[in-house]
Specification:
It is a single chain. The protein has 389 residues and is of the alpha+beta class. 31% of the residues lie in helices and 24% in strands.
Length: 389
């Protein structure tokens, strides 16, 4: 990334955004299966539009999880998000389920058998990234974009912002000097709201959530603070726009500040390296930065379906490292088994921890006591330092 003077922008979308409704439902189905059997295999996509939810995909898991079970999981997600609109209501929406058994050809490639270890669930490339811009070791624009919407959602659920609806988006543009963020130059927030609220009303409701998230002195100029630029946002969620699982992959990761391999996360169990290897790459990059080895770290992993080892491990320290990338690559292979099984076991991924990841970012979150966001731990710093010594 450039190290002189520039502007950089990232966006976030809330749990009520149509695509995020789909991500949450798909991840709720993953959790339903993993909660019943940690060896379950799930790849389920969701589509939503006006009073319609469609589930489609492949699964392998306990037979007591029926289509009715999946319908109830979908309705629960919509209810908890807060949709009780005429055009999208948790109780009255039509939920159609087209979920069938996993392909035997895929199962043969992924499952362990005889002397063959478990293979990757697909081919692909995955990236992880960390930097010193925030305490969470995340790029600042996406970090603050998430915080704004997370604060608004918490207030809405607590009844402290009754005029706000579930669907919202934020966008934060930061000015960088010598590679470091110094202030916001513009902030955009579009949020669904109750009929009868004016644009100025919504602006004043939203303002404290923006000001409280940004560091002191970082608030943008008043004429660069945009709230509901179209003037009105009453019809929202899937009633206003169709949603699909996996359409917000940049929102889910680093806001465009780092490369992306192209694979979505939601709806996939952890044998799918699109998800688990992206988590592992973030985990390694975060530990590299936390260890003081670099100010910024990008890691790429690649896999082939049915093959148990990564085909490649690439590290880029953006000229901020205290060791060579080649030496660091060797150390990372020492401190973590990057096979699909090794990742899943190291990060304890075969448990129902995914629905909570579906909004406000998969990265930059606090690890949970039950193992959620385990990839955000910085628990191999000492091992990494020892491997580099």
């Amino acid at each position: 990334m450039r190290t002189d003077h520039y502007l950089f922008t990232s966006e976030s979308v809330s749990e009520g955004h149509p695509d995020k409704v789909c991500d949450r439902i798909s991840d709720a189905i993953v959790d339903t299966y993993l909660g019943a059997d940690p060896q379950s295999r799930v790849a389920v996509e969701t589509l939503t539009t006006t009073n319609l939810i469609v589930l489609a995909g492949e699964v392998r898991g306990p037979e007591h999880i029926t289509h009715d079970t999946l319908r109830e999981a979908a309705r629960r997600c919509v209810r908890e998000i807060g949709y009780e609109q005429d055009g999208f209501h948790w109780k009255s929406a039509d939920v159609q389920v087209y979920v069938h058994s996993q392909s035997a050809d895929i199962a043969m490639g992924v499952d362990a058998a005889g002397n063959k270890d478990e293979g990757a669930g697909d081919q692909g490339i995955m990236f992880g990234y960390a930097c010193r811009e925030t305490d969470a070791l995340m790029p600042a624009p996406i970090y603050y974009s998430h915080k704004i919407l997370g604060g608004m959602a918490a207030a809405r659920h607590a009844g402290e912002a009754p005029g706000l609806g579930p669907d919202s988006k934020s966008q934060v543009t930061l000015e960088y000097m010598d590679g470091k963020p110094v202030r916001a130059t513009s902030v955009v927030v579009s949020t669904q709201h109750s009929e009868g609220l004016s644009q100025d009303d919504v602006r004043e409701i939203v303002r404290p959530y923006v000001e409280n998230c940004l560091p002191d002195g970082w608030m943008c100029p008043e004429d660069e603070f945009y709230v509901n630029p179209t003037g009105k946002f009453v019809i929202g969620g899937p009633d206003g726009d169709a949603g699909l699982t996996g359409r917000k992959i940049i929102v889910d990761t680093y806001g465009g500040a780092a490369p992306h391999g192209g694979g979505a996360f939601s709806g996939k169990d952890p044998t799918k390296v699109d998800r688990s290897a992206a988590y592992a790459a973030r985990y390694l990059a975060k530990n590299v930065v936390a260890a003081g080895v670099a100010e910024r770290c990008t890691i790429q992993l690649s896999y082939a379906i049915g093959i148990s080892k990564p085909l490649s491990l690439y590290v880029d320290l953006a000229d901020t490292g205290t060791v060579s990338e080649a030496k660091l690559e060797g150390a990372l292979n020492e401190v973590m088994d990057l096979s699909p099984r090794g990742i899943r076991e190291h990060l304890s991924l075969s448990r129902p921890i995914y629905e909570r990841t579906s909004a406000y970012g998969h990265f930059g979150r606090e690890p949970d006591d039950d193992g959620g966001f385990s990839w955000e731990r910085v628990d191999i710093v000492d091992n990494l330092k020892a491997a580099l010594s």
